[in-house]
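Page 47, continued from p. 46.
Same chain as before, 510 aa.
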Amino acid sequence: MSPDQWVAGDYADRMADTPSGGALPPSAPAAPPPGAPTPRMPLRRLGWRRFLALAGVVLLIAAGALFMVFTLGESLGAEALLVGVIAAILPVPVLVSCFLWLDRYEPEPLKYLIFCFAWGAFVSTAISLLVNTAAAGLFDDWGLPAALTAVLVAPFIEELTKAAGPLLVLIFRRREFSGITDGLVYCGLSAVGFAMVENILYLGGYGYRTGVEQYGPATGTQQVIAIFIVRILLFGFAHPLFTSMTGVGLGVAARTADRRVRVLAPLAGLLLAMILHGTWNLLPSLAQATGETVIVLYGYIGVMVPIFFAMVGLAVWLRAWEGRLTERTLPDYVRAGWLTPPEVAALGSLGRRHAARTWARRVAGDGGVRAMRGYQFAATRLALLRDGMRRGLDRKPAERERTAREERELLDAITAYRSFFVGRDPQAPVGVWDGQRYHLRFPDGSQRPVEAPDDPVVPIPVVLAPPPAFPPGGYGPTGWPGPGGGYGPSGHGQGGWPGAGHGPGSPWGR
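Result:
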């Protein structure tokens, strides 16, 4: 794109003058040797506190799993338990795949996804079973119908415990919780785990065992099929839909610097999840009490289905928002000479990302495509980090220092990933981007600058002029304040970003 004009969609606002950072390299960078390992992000050290916390979480989930296996096995019997487990697991891969599809721009660490699923499947179900059973006993002692448990108790304890796992991720691993999309994924997987274990009870107990006791195995099988169609094929979205409300609240809390919103948003989402869950459980009770089964149909079609499609639309929009976020925030690094305009454009949609991986495979083989995947992940994390800086999410000096360190790690990783595929395309001249324009070297040895096109070509196989060095103890390109000096480029002092002060051409002045 041209550095002296605006581009629709706020792709890179106005390109500021940027120091080249060094002389142009005479040729493409040296290719990594064959079989060279793809660079990886630094791993966190597992200190004794993290080890104890991890051990405690594993033991808690294991205890919940043993409790549920023992309780369901004693209640259903081995045969009915096996039938219930097989039938309840069938829809799980489909539901999990939907949430993983939603999380493709910045996939969350597998360990946290497994944690949320296991938390919902074993911890949430164990606590909910104990509380619901105790409440049913109290209602029976008071002479009240047991159906009140499903309306007055189950929605509250089930939604609270399902949300507890994702909430722990937000509190203790906030940097792995980058917005509403992550909230939907974490809470959705917790709800899928919960629904899976709950379906074991319905399919194995109310379905197979009850049918076998009454009429034999054939009837048991028929009832399993009937419950599977109604409870999973028609209403299988119920638990994820309820808990997604809490996920929205947690996601809003993760991306705001306002302490009041951080508290109120999750509470509002949790309350809405409880209300929807309670309404869902109330419908069959009303239908049974009045004899009007059409109440369930009206509630399903008139309330739950519209809410479901609204949440699906929101999820799809948020998924695309993560791609657009890179186009809004990464141009800061284009102006500093760390990235090129086409690289930012190539991150804007999943189709472009796939095209970039195809190109990387063509010019650099399997190592190139692995590096491109890592590059895309690191670039998305960098965009989220920069967005968090703009929002002022880090208030404490320790948090800012950690952000500075993570930004440096991401930029170093991006530079390492680029070396696997940039400048390797034999069908294009060697090109260098200096933060303002391209410098292309042609086969006859001539070299001349070329302005960036208005619509970036995806991808342009160019290398970068050596980027500005980090200041001691600071982060970002030269001139960015250190961890104690605030965020963003600075127009003060030598080596800062020219034109990056608070002016009309600066993203920090808008």
